[in-house]
Amino acid sequence: MDKRTTTMIVVLLLSVFAGMPALGQILDVCTTCHANATCNDKSDGSGKVCNCKYGFVGNGRTFCQDKDECQIGASKICGQHTTCHNTYGSYYCTCLAGYSPSNNMAIFIPNDGTHCQDVDECRITGVCGKGGQCRNLEGSFECSCLMGYRVHDGVEPFHPYRDKASCKVVDCGQPALVEDTVLLSLTGTTYGSVAMFVCNEGFVWRRGENSSVCGADGLWRGPTMVCEEVDCGSPPALPHSHVLWNESSRVGTEVLYQCNSGYHHVGKGNVSVCTAAGQWEGPSVLCQEILCGSPPVIESTEQMWNGNSTPGSTVLYLCKEGFYNKGGHNVSICNESGWWTPPALSCQAKCGPVPFLANSEVVWHNRSIVIHRCVDGYHSWRGSNVSVCGSSGVWQKATLRCIERKPPINQLFVLNEKCVHWKAEKYEEDTEVYKVMYTGSRDYQRTFIDKKRQLVSSKAHQLELCLNLLPVTNYSISITAVSARFTATVTTNTSLPVPPAPVVYYREFETPVPTLRLHRLVNTLDPISLYQVFVLPLEGIMVFECPSPGSLDPSRKSKSSSEYIAAQIHVTHVGTEMNFTVGDGLHYGGFYNAPLENGRDYYIVIRAVSQWKTVLKSSCVLWAKVRGTSFVLKVSSLCAVASVGLVALAILCGYSFTWFLKKT
Ligand SMILES: *[C@@H]1O[C@H](CO)[C@@H](O)[C@H](O)[C@H]1NC(C)=O
Ligand SMILES: *[C@@H]1O[C@H](CO)[C@@H](O)[C@H](O)[C@H]1NC(C)=O
Ligand SMILES: *[C@@H]1O[C@H](CO)[C@@H](O)[C@H](O)[C@H]1NC(C)=O
Ligand SMILES: *[C@@H]1O[C@H](CO)[C@@H](O)[C@H](O)[C@H]1NC(C)=O
Ligand SMILES: *[C@@H]1O[C@H](CO)[C@@H](O)[C@H](O)[C@H]1NC(C)=O
Ligand SMILES: *[C@@H]1O[C@H](CO)[C@@H](O)[C@H](O)[C@H]1NC(C)=O
Ligand SMILES: *[C@@H]1O[C@H](CO)[C@@H](O)[C@H](O)[C@H]1NC(C)=O
Ligand SMILES: *[C@@H]1O[C@H](CO)[C@@H](O)[C@H](O)[C@H]1NC(C)=O
Ligand SMILES: *[C@@H]1O[C@H](CO)[C@@H](O)[C@H](O)[C@H]1NC(C)=O
Ligand SMILES: *[C@@H]1O[C@H](CO)[C@@H](O)[C@H](O)[C@H]1NC(C)=O
Ligand SMILES: *[C@@H]1O[C@H](CO)[C@@H](O)[C@H](O)[C@H]1NC(C)=O
Fold it and tell me: What sections of the protein cross the membrane (predicted)?
């Protein structure tokens, strides 16, 4: 609505209200004041007066009309860059667009000193929009685009409110592919974005920039990099090796390093690869000369070695002094793998001279084994007959013992004409069975044969066997060791014993032809025994020596010259009982049995005599007394002289007598 029209309407309304009080006949002047008037006291104090308000001119009651102050021109009344606004009764000023009042109020009245100054629209950020750059102008501004932005829908400079134009960011779009490269990274496609490139696989960077930048002009700058296809060239030569290579020097090509003959490969890889960096990946191949080192040591050996330990070198092993070769590999060769082939020489210690075993001889030997055997006349029982040379060079001697070869029965002899003794020759604990046979024979008794046998089983080494040997017999005793099947024989003879005296029935007779009785036991000596009947006239002191009756001794013959042998009878002719009559005048065995003299006293002695060859043994017994006068039998010291057999002495003292038997 036009301001003027508005004013008119207000005036109309005020006219309506102004008439109302008049209608009510209210004499208050103030109520009659124009709407745009004020009621003031009169200066003289005589009432009230209506005065039009400031800027209004009129009577104060019926009309108060606006005064248009702006007519004189805004720049004159409000100042530069202003617009003058007339109001009822007043006016006010506003700044033109692009200016702002210095009092920072929307409106102002110029006479308060306010003026309109240029507004710096550029102070408002973003006034030109994103990417826009503001430039302040007097009462206005203009926009242009920043670097990386370009005006859109218009030209520069532009006004963002007035024009449709705006700034839009520069976009270079996807970076173009560059030969032999690969886009590695991209920060964006807009201005300033960076694209990083790397060389394609198999290509290597040579020179230039790897990056491309989006320029303000919307074009990518770069990359300028130059990638060249990788060429590793020839693989590096390494000492003592050769390369297996297919002549390709492109990335990924592998080459194999092989050590030259006599060298071997140490370290990890034997392959080298051509890397993207255009280099052969450091082959760690290390070829070392193959060396077998020191040859293995074998006990008891010495090495013949020239010190060379390259493949093909050899070492010869020899047994050390004091050892000899028992066989096995005596050579070790350094092989292609750098190892000495296993030698296996076996050296045995020499045990020195063959061990000595008493009474033995060596049957066979080499340096490690000796077989022994007992020498003639010696034999072995059990035990090993082999000596073995031990690894320490000491003989483990045979356990064989050589024992003098003796008959299984030896030192056979007869002791005391009764017991056979012998030594057994046998292995300790063995039991031997001996068969003992003995045969007795007599030259004087052709029919005689004493043949007996006996078995003895014993472990003993000393044996004694007592036999019941008969006297005056030649014995042949043979002892057979049954398991040894050995027989030893010994002969022995038994001696002549004193013959047993017959059992007589002593009597005293008063007759010159007494018949005497005797009883005897059959004795083995009978064939060489006889009885002699002695007649001893009793006169003075008399001595009768049984072993050598007086008649045999010339020195004593005188003393007892009267004694005589009345009869001599072979015992074999005598039965177990015999009656003999003394003085019957007959001849017995060449002796005259002379009649006894009357009145004389006699002793009758019977003497048993056994004789073989030169040996004679006798025993005597007083048989009878033929009564006459008394006589004394003196104990003779000769009895002690008697050398063999029994001495029978008759001692008569008064009317009694005693027989002494004395053994010498
Ligand atoms: C009084 O003045 C105002 C402007 O200040 C105007 O709008 C109004 O119409 C006037 N009143 C009358 C009754 O004329
Ligand atoms: C480009 O990249 C390579 C590796 O791909 C590097 O060696 C080289 O220095 C880089 N060049 C520049 C100019 O940055
Ligand atoms: C050589 O060997 C590599 C592998 O190591 C293979 O990729 C390549 O094709 C071979 N080149 C030729 C020419 O045979
Ligand atoms: C290369 O080395 C590997 C193991 O490292 C081995 O198995 C292969 O035999 C070697 N090749 C040659 C030719 O030496
Ligand atoms: C080594 O052993 C061989 C047979 O194995 C033999 O012929 C050669 O004589 C031995 N050499 C020496 C030095 O003992
Ligand atoms: C070399 O000798 C060692 C040990 O004696 C053996 O293990 C290896 O197999 C040998 N190598 C060759 C190539 O004969
Ligand atoms: C000796 O003989 C034995 C048995 O025949 C044999 O085992 C051993 O090797 C031989 N020793 C020597 C040094 O000949
Ligand atoms: C050694 O003893 C064995 C049995 O122990 C025997 O067979 C061998 O004949 C004996 N050798 C000699 C020479 O005595
Ligand atoms: C015993 O033998 C010897 C010699 O042959 C002989 O002279 C002697 O008469 C014999 N003795 C007996 C009692 O046979
Ligand atoms: C036994 O014999 C020996 C000699 O053969 C002889 O000297 C000895 O007198 C004899 N003894 C007897 C009692 O026959
Ligand atoms: C010995 O004499 C006695 C009687 O005086 C008589 O009985 C006996 O038979 C005689 N003996 C012999 C062997 O004549």
Answer: 640-661
Q: How far apart are CA 171 and CA 214, in angstroms?
A: 8
Which of 493, 494, 610, 614 to mutate to test ligand 10, by most ligand atoms within 8 A of the CB atom? Answer: 493
In order of their start, the domains of the chain are 31-66 (2.10.25.10), 69-119 (2.10.25.10), 122-169 (2.10.25), 181-229 (2.10.70), 241-289 (2.10.70), 301-349 (2.10.70), 360-404 (no CATH), 409-493 (2.60.40.10), 503-632 (2.60.40)
DSSP, res 274: B
Q: What is the pTM of this model?
A: 0.45
**579 C-beta closer than 6 A to ligand 11:** yes
Residues of the chain above pLDDT 90, percent:
42
Strand (E) positions, 321-399? 323-325, 331-333, 347-349, 360-365, 369-374, 378-380, 386-389, 395-396
For residue 502, pLDDT beyond 70: yes
Give 271 Cα–ligand 3 centroid separation in angstroms.
Answer: 14
Has residue 14 got a pLDDT over 90?
no
Phi and psi based region of residue 382 (left: phi greater than 0; alpha: psi -120 to 50; beta: remaining): left
Q: What is the pLDDT of residues 303-352, one digit of tens each?
A: 999 999 999 999 999 998 888 888 899 999 999 888 999 899 988 888 88
- Residues whose CB falls within 8 Å of the CB of residue 612, separated by 6 or more in sequence, listed in order: 444, 472, 496, 528
pLDDT for the residue 550: 59
Question: How close is the Cα of 579 to the center of ligand 11, in Å?
Answer: 6
Ligand 2 pocket check for 209: Cβ under 6 Å: yes
Token digits for 555?
Answer: 């020195």
Residue 166 CA, chain-centre distance (Å), reads 93
Q: Which two tokens stand for residue 537?
A: 């006239």
| Gap from CA of 493 to ligand 10 centroid (Å) | 6
* Nearest partner of 538 among 631, 620, 626, judged by Cα: 631
Torsional class of 208: left (φ above 0), alpha (ψ -120 to 50), beta (otherwise): left
Strand partners, 442: 445
Q: For ligand 3, is residue 253 a contact (CB within 6 Å)?
A: yes
Residue 123, pLDDT above cutoff 80:
yes
Question: Is 50 exceeded by the pLDDT of residue 423?
Answer: yes
Q: Are 565 and 606 in contact (CB under 8 A)?
A: no
The whole-angstrom distance between residue 317's C-alpha and the CA centroid of its chain comes to: 31
CA of 575 to the centre of ligand 11 (A): 11
Give the residue whose CA is nearest to atom 13 of ligand 5.
318
Query: What tokens were used for 485?
Result: 């099947």
Helix then strand then coil, % of the chain, to nearest 5: 10, 45, 50
Max intra-chain CA distance, the chain: 261
Structure tokens at 106: 């929307």
Residue type, 34: H
Cα 548–554–560 angle (5° rounding)?
A: 75
Q: Are 535 and 596 in contact (CB under 8 A)?
A: yes
Decide if pLDDT at 650 tops 80: no
* 580 Cα to the center of ligand 11, angstroms: 9
